[in-house]
């Protein structure tokens, strides 16, 4: 079957908002090199390639313009939105495999449209980044200790694809950040984590504002990031920063405003013994256009 390329904006219902992703259906005949070239040509932060799977409903590979990555939240939402529209799926569960493992994806009706919910991997927290490393991260982001929520670590958190959590005071103008991308890329090589996620909690609300910088893998700034907002939700529970009922916490993560691509990630954290046990992210999407892939290298 001819590969089909889709341009999708995820974590939004408005065209040209949220986070754009490439989605390639019928990608089984493409080589690794071809997938990388297509991702480079499309220039989305990630492009998802959908392939047949022996043990799941679909296998997905994810490429930035420069490298393959294990999984991507917004490209997963985009991929399953496209697949569900093409196959007529609604109110069902499908399973996908990727380099990050096997994940449950729920296809949910929302009015006449769809919401895609991805169950992420188990939350993992690395030791805090301290001393010179912490100072270098703050300096590269254009921050100092006066901008930070007191008593909290700068820390790598993951639900499948790690990000550095950088918790800011609510009065910080997060939209004004202008990081040193070269310095962040160099730090990524030192700490083994390619994304930096400064965020703040909206006063009195279970809502956050964040930005995500990942220059080490060719992404200066990602508009709306499932793989940052998901671990952020787990991180907030881990450090006791949001009130919950002991079983569940729901958060809305806002991102993209600073670069004109506002979007929202809905985050659900299930809790056991006051610690995060499981994280699910969900969002909407809109298809801008699609086309046959007519030329293969």
TrEMBL record:
SUPFAM superfamilies: Diaminopimelate epimerase-like. Belongs to the PhzF family. One of its GO terms (molecular function) is isomerase activity. It holds the Pfam family PhzC-PhzF. NCBIfam families: PhzF_family, PRK10281.1. The keyword Secreted does not apply. The keyword Isomerase applies. PANTHER family: BIOSYNTHESIS PROTEIN, PUTATIVE-RELATED, PHENAZINE BIOSYNTHESIS PROTEIN. The active site is at 46. Keywords: Isomerase. This is PhzF family isomerase. One of its GO terms (cellular component) is cytoplasm.
